[in-house]
Write a structure and sequence with these properties.
CATH architecture of the domain at 19-128 and 225-240 in chain A: 3-Layer(aba) Sandwich
Order of helices and strands of chain B: EEHEEEEEEHEE
Largest sheet of chain A: 9 strands, mixed
Largest interface: A-B, 52 and 54 residues
Number of helices of chain B: 2
Number of strands of chain B: 10
Strand order of the largest sheet of chain A: 3-2-4-8-1-9-12-11-10
Low-confidence stretches of chain A: none
Mean pLDDT of chain B: 97
Radius of gyration of chain B: 17 Å
Oligomer: heterodimer
Structural class of chain A: alpha/beta
Distance between the termini of chain B: 47 Å
CATH topology of chain B: OB fold (Dihydrolipoamide Acetyltransferase, E2P)
Strand order of the largest sheet of chain B: 8-7-6-9-10
Largest sheet of chain B: 5 strands, antiparallel
CATH class of the domain at 19-128 and 225-240 in chain A: Alpha Beta
Order of helices and strands of chain A: EHEHEHEHEHHHHEEEHEHEHHHHEE
Mean pLDDT of chain A: 95
Number of domains of chain B: 1
Chain lengths: 422, 173
């Protein structure tokens, strides 16, 4: 009998380089916004339009995602005076960003609209706490959910923990190795004026912080924040008319699943120390026509330190089982071979369900990250490439980036972007 | 009528149309673990589903399955979400490889059944017991009643089994 794991992954490749991200924007990253998600959404979309040099008339498509904690597209579009030819409100969290970028390309290609603004607006700290306490723990527990929530097995950290521990068991991965992810991302955040947490942490800080759910210490877990983020997608021709250089999309993979998923995520079909990136890599690399060695920077979903380690490994940035060595080698830090999450990501900058890592890589590809470097007479940042605390975070000569989105160990999304060759 | 009961301060509900979960938890209430067995494939599956993942066959029988196995991995919770679990920390959620159908139909597959680590009497275990349990520990199933016709499957250390000398534990204790 045919097994699900044998599913052929190849897809048409003719859209490589034909679409781009032409505008990005966000609100501040805060706890206690005192604002509605509707207000946050219009703020972020306005910033992205400003970044693209577009007006409300230039956008006619809208996509957003949420878990009953946001605002729907028609309301936001009407607030901003945008007349939509297409919109869709999608249920979901992590793994949505890249997937929705792929959907945006598809609907533009189908002639349904011309430019799509994708947003995620959330009060992830002050309304629906992402960690699972408060409103998220009070909802009724029905049917399938009994199989996990009945056991006090509920939050993302609790649900993913058996995957993380099994990786340590299978490959000898240590808490100290994985703590380097927080060390790297906190270093990057210290050079990001808009990051919620700008403090640099050491390996000792991480492994000595209190245990939340083994193997996760407090500092292995991401921050909960209130914010909105927006990414605008258009054809490469339209994107080239925009104010800033386009980040050219080479390939996208959306919500790629491991075989035999269920309410417990992926525990029936092992090895459980392997995550969905193992399958998604066979879509993004062939479709982009490149390999992991061609990627200059990565943006991996860091809901936890462990999620970054697992993804970088399963996408092939190191050998299977060597993720612990890779993330503790210095490779993922600014100044290293392939910096990851140069904004500080979810661990430090703010929690956006994947959007801020794509925004950051867009700015990196432009060569214009918003660090503290001085602005020159041309109005552009004069990057020093001095990565000491409070300094630069632009990576030199970025040509190609990879984003690795994550819903849970069994489902992930990804995207490769390149600097515009023109 | 939905089956509804309060357990650990949580209201747990099984809708009357949810035949798969009703049967699963009813068998637990009767004290014998049952799983769905696909008629075409002859393969068991967990948790309850509406078709066989290997053949798409929607026909199945509920068959009794021995509730014995070894810990494949676990979560050890020190910071709970649900209020009633606060007085139970630390507690363990075990993901257990059943002996039945281990490594079938492919090498890395198993019926991996979740549950808390409890005493043989169905109480949460003390911290010193938790420190003796890890990957490889042999466990057997116990049940805790939610309400009439509805019980949850859990795990307890199998006193009669030969235990590994050093089950794998997270290294930082």
């Amino acid at each position: 009998m045919a097994l699900q794991s044998d599913t052929e992954a190849s897809t048409p490749k003719f859209l490589r380089g034909k679409y781009a991200i032409c505008g990005v924007g966000e609100t501040t990253y805060r706890r206690g916004s005192q604002e509605s998600t509707r207000n946050l959404a219009t703020w972020a979309i306005n910033n992205a339009l400003e970044d693209a040099g577009m007006t409300a008339d230039d956008v006619d498509g809208m996509l957003d995602y949420s878990g009953n904690d946001s605002v729907f597209a028609p309301q936001v579009a009407n607030d901003l005076g945008i007349r939509l030819n297409f919109y869709m409100d999608v249920h979901g969290g992590g793994s949505s960003t890249e997937a929705l970028i792929g959907i945006a390309i598809g609907v533009i290609e189908a002639g349904m609209c011309k430019t799509v603004a994708i947003y995620r607006a959330m009060n992830g700290y002050s309304q629906v706490r992402i960690g699972g306490t408060g409103a998220r723990s009070a909802v009724p527990i029905v049917g399938d959910q009994i199989h996990h929530r009945g056991y006090g097995w509920q939050s993302a950290g609790q649900m993913f923990a058996p995957t993380f521990l099994r990786h340590m068991y299978d490959y000898g991965t240590t808490p100290e190795q994985v703590a380097h992810v927080k060390v790297a991302h906190s270093k990057h955040a210290s050079n990001n004026p808009k990051a919620y947490y700008k403090t640099r942490y050491t390996v000792e800080d991480v492994v000595n912080s209190r245990i939340i759910c083994k193997p996760l210490h407090l500092l292995d877990c991401c921050v909960e924040t209130d914010n909105a983020t927006c990414i605008i997608v258009a054809s490469i021709d339209r994107a080239r008319d925009c104010k800033n250089a386009p980040a050219v999309i080479q390939s996208v993979a959306g919500r790629v699943c491991k075989p035999r998923g269920d309410i417990h995520l992926h525990y029936q079909h092992g090895p459980i120390s392997t995550v969905a990136g193992h399958y998604a890599k066979d879509i993004i690399f062939p479709n982009a026509g490149v390999g992991p060695e061609d990627i200059d920077i990565t943006g991996s979903y860091d809901a936890f330190t462990f999620t970054t380690m697992l993804q970088l490994e399963d996408y092939g940035f190191c050998e299977k089982g060597e993720g612990g060595d890779y993330v503790s080698s210095g490779a993922i830090e600014l100044g290293g071979r392939r910096p990851n999450n140069t904004s500080g990501g979810h661990l430090c900058e703010g929690y956006t369900h994947g959007m801020n890592m794509v925004i950051e890589n867009t700015r990196q590809l432009r060569g214009e990250v918003d660090d503290s470097c001085p602005v020159g007479p041309d109005g552009k940042k004069q990057h020093t490439y001095d990565y000491s605390e409070g300094g630069c975070r632009q990576v030199k000569g970025v040509e190609m980036s990879a984003n690795l989105g994550w819903a849970h160990p069994g489902t992930g999304s990804a995207m490769i972007m390149a600097k515009d060759a023109r | 009528m939905p089956i509804q009961g309060e357990y650990m301060g949580m209201m747990l509900t099984i809708d009357d149309v949810d035949q798969e979960n009703r049967e699963f938890f009813r068998h637990c209430a009767e004290g014998t673990f049952h799983l769905q067995k696909g008629k075409e494939s002859g393969l068991l599956r967990y948790p309850p589903t509406t078709a066989c993942p290997w053949t798409r066959d929607r026909e199945y029988d509920w068959v009794p399955v021995e509730g014995k196995g070894a810990v494949h991995s676990y979560a050890e919770v020190h910071h709970p979400i649900q209020p009633a679990f606060r007085e139970k920390v630390p507690y363990m959620v075990l993901v257990v490889d059943l002996d039945t159908q281990l490594g079938q139909p492919t090498e890395h597959e198993a019926l991996r059944v979740a549950g808390n680590l409890l005493t043989a009497d169905g109480e949460f275990v003390p911290p010193e017991t938790i420190k003796s349990v890890g990957i490889g520990t042999r466990v057997r199933m116990v049940f805790t009643e939610v309400t009439e016709g509805f019980a949850l499957p859990h795990w307890t250390i199998d006193e009669d089994a030969e235990q590994p000398e050093n089950p794998w534990r997270y290294p930082q204790e």
